[in-house]
Amino acid sequence: MTCRNRRIPTVAAALAAAFVLSSAAPAIAHHSNAAFDSTQTISLEGVVTRYEWANPHVYLWIAVLGANGEKVEWEVEGQPPAMLRRLGWSQATLAKGDAIQVTGNPSRDRSRNKVLLVALKRAEATLYDGKSFMTALTTPVAAPVAAADGIAGVWTTQLDLAAMQAYLDPSQRVALTERGAAAKASYDEATMSSGLKCVAAPAPAFMFVPDIKRITVEADAIRIAGEFGATERVIHLAANPNAVAHSPSAQGYSVGRWEGATLVVETTDFAPHSGGIGFSLPSSPRKRLVERLTLEDDGRALAYAFEVTDPEILSAPLSGTSRWVYSPNIAFAPAACDLDNARRFTQ
Hints:
This protein is mainly β. 12% of the residues lie in helices and 33% in strands. The longest helix has 9 residues, at 130-138.
């Protein structure tokens, strides 16, 4: 095992002023990475003893030879399965007994054998590195030969850096109210994060997180399911959708209507959520969301746009966009959220 003192930009880093490419994904990956030292990297060579493919994070454990020849087990925290799939990862990518090389940011508590994954190799093959990961999330997916004849189907969400910036720190785009600033200052993810209970991020983050989504169109509703968080939201299209009995929920109560080729969705009645407006920024009961999904490129893409208001938290509306690419050849395969996995970062 070797340790070297050089700064490596990782997907664990917080949003920098210049919004460094490789720092874009972590906060939507369930929690921040403050527990890890992004100024240091550790190199480990060992054998996989366990590989956990689950939401919200992929974890693996490797046995490494210690200084005295003894076996020491290290825990390696990776990205969410929904995002690693963009690199071709699956539940079968690693197996117990695989010999691998891992580079990671160590835990700030050096007594703990934990690292945040920065790079992973098996033999001469690089299975993961931060730059390739972010490229896979941000680079437009090749347009399919086939085109959708509507919004139904499987779609791949391209990471939009501006939308992600708005989520990671809304105060960079819109001034917070006094209540909003106080909520952000008092946030403690180890005790307050909704992710600890496997509650997925609500819209609009649910919509622009770079995962794989499936849209199902029914007679009186549209269902949008996402792999990240393994959850689903329902958009009501009934003649009088407001007559449907409902109560506040994580994804709110959504009513949709068609304006030409655009699906316009208005959502209210959001339940309290630690990330209702942004990472570490909750929403109030007055949160309101307006979204638009428009089929474009002759049915090969969807343009998504949102505007969220919450006068208790934000001084002005917060808006953003993302692009979804029709992906009929990709299977929709969400991994269930595991409570032990979701809470492991607090241990």
